[in-house]
Design goal:
The complex is a heterodimer of chains A (about 110) and B (about 120). Chain A is built from no helices and 11 strands. Helices cover about 0% and strands about 55% of the residues of chain A. Chain A is mostly beta strands and about 110 residues long. Chain B has about 120 residues and is mostly beta strands. In chain B, strands 2, 4, 5, 6, 9, 10 and 11 form a 7-stranded mixed β-sheet that branches. In chain B, strands 1-3-8-7 form a 4-stranded antiparallel β-sheet, with no helix packed on it. At the A-B interface, strand 4, strand 5 and strand 9 of A face strand 5, strand 9 and strand 10 of B.
């Protein structure tokens, strides 16, 4: 079945440093979504990428979808303590109906 | 109303108990989901309802029984659970309808933290 690999599993940064997490799918995706889960919270939707090569920005966050629609990245510029949490990518594709395959997540810690 | 609500927030149950988790959304979404999430792991899909019909069951043990009484409500009935079933149970919804290989934004509820003793 479809698999989505996400790295790194953990990332510790000093406040102000940049952060990137990467996702790789075993199959071509129809779209990829990114979610953030704060400690003790639930996943919250950040963005959806649909087009090959798409780049979207949300303030300090930049999301990219690869040309082959099999990989994606999330880059945060100048991290802040409010960025702490787990970032998940989730891909849709293949023969499934309405099913997302989640990556393992990257747990981000930001030291002040 | 743009939120998914779940009750209870916390639940402790014994292995012989029967309990139910409830999820509600009033966004007119036609797809509703149950996920199980263990600590430091991604949400793991359990069930999907589309237009109030069960469309995906990810080989979940029968001690978990989903129910969708109407388009706004989703229940998960629990019976004879095991300690390893302790987890955060998340409900989610999205607008639907589905197309092959498609999936829209998931709106997650806050979850029910379940502890099975």
């Amino acid at each position: 079945g479809q698999q989505v690999m996400q790295i790194p599993q953990y990332q510790h940064v000093q406040e102000g440093e940049d952060f990137t997490t990467y996702c790789n799918s075993s199959t071509t995706l129809s779209n990829i979504q990114w979610y953030k889960q704060r400690p003790g919270g639930h996943p919250v939707f950040l963005i959806q990428l649909v087009k090959s090569g798409e780049v979207k920005k949300q303030k300090r966050l930049t999301f990219q979808f690869g040309e082959a629609k099999k990989n994606s990245s999330l880059h945060i510029t100048a991290t802040q303590t409010t960025d702490v949490g787990t970032y998940f990518c989730a891909g849709a594709g293949g023969t499934s109906y309405g099913k997302l395959t989640f990556g393992q997540g990257t747990i981000l810690t930001v030291h002040p | 109303d743009t939120e998914v609500t779940q009750t209870p927030k916390h639940l402790v149950m014994g292995m012989t108990n029967k309990k139910s988790l409830k999820c509600e959304q009033h966004m007119g979404h036609r797809a509703m989901y149950w996920y199980k999430q263990k600590a430091k792991k991604p949400p793991e899909l359990m069930f999907v309802y589309s237009y109030e019909k069960l469309s995906i069951n990810e080989s979940v043990p029968s001690r978990f029984s989903p129910e969708c009484p109407n388009s706004s409500l989703l229940n998960l009935h629990l019976h004879a659970l095991q300690p390893e079933d302790s987890a955060l149970y998340l409900c989610a919804s999205n607008p639907g309808p589905f197309r092959i290989g498609g999936a829209e934004t998931q709106y997650f509820g806050p979850g029910t933290r379940l502890l099975v003793l």
